[in-house]
Structure formats: structure tokens, C-alpha cells
Amino acid sequence: MYLADHAWPDADTDVSTALVPLGSTEQHGPHLPLATDHLIAEGFAREAAERTGLVCTPTVKVGVSPHHRQFPGTMWVSPGAFREYVRSFASNLAYHGIDRMVFVNAHGGNVEHLREVGRSLRDAETAYACEWMWDRSIPDLVDDVFETNGPHAGPKETSLIQHLHPELVHDERIAEAAEGGCTDIANAGHFRNGAQVHYDAVENSHNGAFGDQTDASAEKGEELFEAATAQLVELAEWLEGEAFEDLLPAERR
Prior knowledge:
This protein is of the alpha/beta class. Helices cover 41% and strands 9% of the residues. It contains 9 helices and 6 strands. β1, α2 and β2 (55-56) form a beta-alpha-beta unit.
């Protein structure tokens, strides 16, 4: 069930789990839309909700993205504002009886903040929420499919958008994305003597893209989408089947 499509008399459900898609609105190289992350998150969440009969909420479309601020169109909120918004959002769901959630997240900048929100909700015994990212659910497949997958605006995200929203991909700019971006990630200068020395993406990639985008295809995107959706479905079904008290913190020893 995609919650926002229903009238309120039809929105009452006997399930306890919601899939909450979260992403960002930020640059994804010259070839992908600013919406890339939140489109990917929503694609996974809506498909998993359809397959499980669980609830999918509207998408949180702006996240923690100041590291892409040099590129026009990028939007972001402060980490504190993001955490408080998601915490309030989740508490609202709990009020309606949805006391467990999967944060279906497709933006790396959100990860640590979603983990913190999940812990605070659990510690308060308001709800149980865990953060999920599609590529972490199928790491071996991602590595097998792409020679240089790239952490951002690379072939894995390009392939997914080619599969989910091909009309939004600038195919004529894919070669430009690879040539003007950062393909040699291991030697990009991210770290010196054990310290991470950059803060913004532009410091390592002139056009904001990483990896070899010419290795992308809609067919690869479909393969990744199906494999990761299966993982998300298993996670959501496990969560729905758990007793709520078993998801709460253990008692002090």
C-alpha cells in the first residue's frame, strides 16, 4: 500500500511495518537527475510494499547533502533538522500503530543520522527502525556486474535510473561523465596518512561523477533492482513477524 494514494477510511491497516523511502536532491554528474537518490529509494520501497502488502510512506526527498553544494540545484538540510524531521515523522507513524519501520535509504549522507534516529526511537520504546541501503544488501553482485562501480553517480546508480526512469538519463553525456569525473577512486586523494582530507565531492571529481558510467545499462539495473528488492522484502517480512518487545533494548544485566 502506497499510503498517500488512499483516502483516510482506507488507510487504516492491520500491519505494523512501514517502508519509508529517503534520499536526496543533489547533483549526480552531468547525466543523471538531481532526483536520483530519492527516485531509487522510492522505487525499492514501493515495489517491496507491493510484494509484501506492507505500507509505503511518501518519500523524504531532501537529505544531508552539503558536500555537493558547489553544484547548482543541490539542496540540503542540516543534520539536526533532518534527524528531528525523521524522528517526528516516525513518531507520527507509531501513533497510528506502525511501530516498526525500514528506512529505505539511497543516500550515503543520511546513513549516520538515520542510525541515530533509529536508536533514539528504540531507546524510547516508541518504535523500531533500521536503515537499509540497496547496494549494501547485494555487495558481491555489484562487484561482479561492474568493474569500476563508483560510490556516487557511477554505473550502479546510472543503471538503476536507466531501468526505473530512462527518460531522465542524458545518455549522450555518459561518456562525458566518465571522462570528466573520477574513475581511479583508489588514488583520488581521499585519504592521507590515515586521515580523510576532503569534505566536498568537487575536490575529487570535477563534474561530480565517480566510476565508469559507460559500463551501465538498463539490463544491469533491472538485475540489481530485482536482487536488492528480494533482500528488502525478506527484511521487511522478518520485521513484521517479530514481536515488538523482542525488538526493544535488552534489560540491564
